[in-house]
Amino acid sequence: MHDAGHPGEQRELTRLDRAESLRLLASVPVGRLIFTVNALPAVRPMNFALVDELIVLRTAADTTVARKINDMIVAFEADELDATACTGWSVTVTRRASVVTEDDRAARFRAAQVTPWAPGARDQFVTISTELVEGQRISRTPATGGGQAAGSPVAGQG
User: Which among 61, 63, 66, 65 is positioned nearest to 42, based on CA atoms?
Assistant: First the structure.
């Protein structure tokens, strides 16, 4: 697939393995938490840390996040995109969220220095297992001429 804005280049969509997905996830400070409230989708930007293959969020106990997502299946997505170059990556984790109630676990996550951006006390931790993680990268490659190579991603996959 050729891009009129970048003659001689093609875009390639690559599925990422677990190790690369987690490495990229750990490289950015902010992602989006996707969950439901009253059967409607809700999305919250959240800063986070990856600790022992757990996504760790820090919020206040009285927030919608803390009140609604305990033991709920959620998605968490983080990415790094370059709109000018039409390149980037995205990693999505889908799993059950857990509000941390044990003081020793909370102390461990506090030591991980998940510093909340929002004002006020943010002493409630939420974890999401990364057991189910999917990642993809879109990159530019020089045009090779001819058709699509065997094994190349198909346009529209993703």
Answer: 65
Q: Is residue 55 within 8 Å of 77, Cβ to Cβ?
A: no
Domains of the chain: 9-140 (2.30.110.10)
Position 129 pLDDT exceeds 80: yes
Nearest to 5 by CA among 153, 140, 155: 140
Residues 6+ apart with CB under 8 A from 150: none
98-104 own/partner pairs: CB under 8 Å, 24+ apart? 98/70, 98/71, 98/126, 98/127, 98/128, 99/66, 99/69, 99/70, 99/124, 99/125, 99/126, 100/124, 100/125, 100/126, 100/127
Q: Which of 71, 78, 120, 80 is nearest to 100 (CA)?
A: 71
What is the pTM assigned to this prediction?
A: 0.81
Residue 1 has pLDDT above 50, yes or no: no
Q: Quick one: DSSP state of residue 3?
A: -
CA pair distance 5, 42, nearest whole angstrom = 35
